[in-house]
Amino acid sequence: MPERALLCLFGVINRSIKCTWKNINSNIVEHLKKNNIETDVYVFNLVCDNGLVDGVNVNNNDHTIIESTFYECKSQSVLDHDIKEKIETVPYKPSYVLWYTDNQIHNTMRQMYSEYRVGAFIRTHMKDYDYAIVCGPDYYVTKPINIHDLRKSKKNNMVYISDVNPGMNGYTNGYYVSSNLKDMSIMLCRYEHILPFLKDFKGDYEQLLKKYCDANSVQVMSTDQVFFKIRANKTIFWQGFNDKHKEDDHNKTAYQSVMKEFDLRAQEVFEKRC
């Protein structure tokens, strides 16, 4: 009997899914199928009410390119109101490292909420799947999912993550692979309990993820997946400063190929992002 997996996409799906879906489908869904793993697709879409993402208009129907098994969505304006109310429940302002702006801090809450929706879905469907794979919809992955690591998680209970951008000695966010759906859902649902971790916090978003996992005994290990981000304004962006991945010939070829295919330009490291 085939094993079953759930691929989960989260966040502003319409940002660049027309550039990334073919790649995600080929390297994750189709590769799982080749290894006798049937896959359902769950989508949580954070919909920008005015259609404006990364300073440009996007088509809010682009998500339909995905043949999703399950689809949920929420308006960003409604979420922003909910975040405001959540933060008002504590007598302190959430904080990160000094260079995080208020807008960046707010965006981290949006991201954590989007991951929370994935975690909440997984939490109620644990008996239906052997594995879960979580991937940002604007991620262009450079290689097939590592089936060895996926199946190994059945024995070691690890949640596997990419090491593309550990930030300030934390954990890369947005690409998670495991059979340990309980621990994965704990990690993904951190939005529910995150505010105490943000009191007088001096780290970055990646460090926060590690701090939360450590506090909840979620064990994490690196897998070999590499990705870069594609923005709605047709820019392509390597997260972090990990030159090992940028200088790899295979990754370079993938980067140059997608730039040419979609007429993208390289995003400057400190270019303003939404």
CA-based gyration radius: 18 Å
**Model regions low in confidence, pLDDT < 50 over at least 5 residues:** 270-274
Q: How many strands appear in the DSSP assignment?
A: 13
**Amino-to-carboxy terminus distance:** 44 Å
User: Major beta sheet, specifics?
Assistant: 7 strands, mixed
Overall CATH class: Alpha Beta
| Principal-axis shape | globular
Largest beta sheet: what is the strand line-up? 5-2-1-6-9-8-10
H/E series = EHEEEEHHEEHEEHHEEEHHE
Can you tell me the CATH architecture? Alpha-Beta Complex
Helix content: 25-40%
Number of domains: 1
Derived structural class: alpha/beta
Q: Write down the CATH topology.
A: Spore Coat Polysaccharide Biosynthesis Protein SpsA, Chain A
Provide the residue-averaged pLDDT.
Answer: 94
Number of helices: 8
Beta-strand content bin = 15-25%
Q: Key terms for this structure?
A:
8 helices, disordered C terminus, Spore Coat Polysaccharide Biosynthesis Protein SpsA, Chain A, 274 residues, globular, four-stranded mixed beta sheet, 21% strand, alpha/beta
